Each structure stands twice: as C-alpha cells, then as structure tokens.
Amino acid sequence: MDSNWMFIGDCNSSSNQYYSSVEHDICRKISIKEVNSATDNLNVSNFIGQGIAGKVYKGRLSNGQHVAIKHILNDGHMETFVREVTSLSPVKHPNLVALVGYCEGEDECFLVYELCHNGNLSEWLFGKDKTLTWIQRLQIAIDCARGLWFLHTYPDGCIVHRDIKPTNILICEDFHGKLSDFGLSKVLDMGLSYVSSEVRGTFGYVDPEYRNNRRVNSSSDVYSFGIVLLQIISGQRVINMDLTRPMSLDKKARFLTRGGNLVDFADAKLNGDYSVEAFEIVMKLALSCTGLKQERPGMEQIVGKLEDTLNISIKL
Questions:
Q1: Catalytic entry in 163, 181, 221, 250
Q2: Is 163 an active-site residue?
Q3: Of the CATH numbers 1.10.10.1760, 3.40.50.720, 3.30.200.20, 3.40.50.300, which one belongs to the domain with range 16-114?
Q4: pTM score of the predicted model
C-alpha cells in the first residue's frame, strides 16, 4: 500500500451535528460531479493512501490542477472535515500543503488538497531505490522548520501540529518540503501558553513531557521535529528494533556525542558527500530540540541554524 498521502484525523466525535457548522465561504466548494470526474469515480487505479478518516485518491480538477482527494464517510470522522474547512483552510504558507476545496453530501464528504508529486519523506529516507542528497535533506528540513515557525506564530493563536513525522512531510517536484495532515492540530488562544489535552501523536515522536503532563504547546512540535532531523541525517528508523535492547534514535545520537565519532551516525546513502561541519551542527541542533523543554530552541532559531548549515554546505 502506498502511504504517500496518509491523513490521520482526530476522530472521536459523532458526525451529523457538524454539517451545519461548515462555513461555505472559507474555501472553494467543489461539486460531487467534479470529484467523480477528477478521480474517475474513485477508481482503484487512483487510490494512493488510507488513513483513519478515509481513503485518498489522486485526481485532476477541471482547471487542470492535480490534487489529492480524501474521501470521508459520515461515520464518526466528520470532525476532521469540519476542522480543516473552518479552522485551517485560511492558514496558507508555501511550506504547508494547501486545502484547495471541499465537497459535502448527506453521507460522505471530500477534502481536496494540492498534490505533491514526490511522495513523502519517509519513502526517500527508508526506501531502497530512492535517495536524497545532503543539500536536498537540508532544504527539506528548512522548509518544514519554516512551516512550523509560521504555525507557531500564527496571528490568531499558536497552532500546534502534534504529529510531525516523515510520512507527514510531503515533497514537491522541486524537492521542497511541505507539512501535511492537520487532523491532530490544536490552536492555542492568544495569551495561553498551553492547553490540556489527551495524548495524541505517533509513537517515537511524542514529546515525553507532553506524554507525562498532557500539556499541548509548541515545544512538543520542536521535540518531534528534532527526532525527524535525526532521521534526515542518519536515515534510521525512530526505534532500532534489531538490537537485543532497543534504543531510541535520540539516545543513540547522544551516546555518540559523549566521545564517539559523530559521522558514524551519518546515513550510508550519503556516501560521505556532505559537510562534516554542517552535519555536526545539525546533529547537535536536533539533540537540543529533544532535550529538556525549557532548553529547547524556538522554530525561528532552528530555521536560522539550518540556513547557516546550508550556506556552509553550498560553499564546499
């Protein structure tokens, strides 16, 4: 199964009550006729992913735009639909996957997103027949950091993504990155430093402090981003299950910083074609992201550091 376009929603609420709350002027309303035409009536040949909220199909709208269309059935998953249409469709940034439009009916609805043709970061890091250069990895990391910086400083309130991981980082034709899947996101009202919430997210990427105190804030995203950074430079899974005693990726990286050779952490796919100076900066930056909450950098600082490493690498 291809998971390029997997969207996982926060789907605990009943459905019918939500239809009346959708504000129709927030983004483009697309007819069921156009959805069926774009996907050849949800033809299996256009199926590209499966999430909790429904199946996702690639398609092409009447204006020629290539899109990913998520099909949501009215069976308890409508919260995802309403959240994205009413709350997140106005949130636009070059490094966030855009919600193009929506379609709603009595027993089903659709969310229509821009299509990123190169799939997701997970495929490129862990796929045997795909590889990213050092520069491409840095650029994708910078793109995602910029997207998170935008979300965390959104004028109407900090938006916490809550599910940063490689499968939720999509890659465009020009190998720039975009954050996707806002089904678990939380918006912090102005003046609030956190909100209390049930622990949601993906194993291995969830901030331990959030897991313990259930307080959602931007530092939780910083932790998850730090784990992804470690994966970007190492090409390793978040947990190494091949060992007798499994070790998390950040613990393995920290162990190497205590007298080990940091380049031993580098992805073999890079074939040594990277700046050692830049590599060490990124590795230490990632570990600062996964450190104690009060010592973690903000996304603005992270963007600046990553841009510095890109400049160092380009000069070689």
A1: 163
A2: yes
A3: 3.30.200.20
A4: 0.84
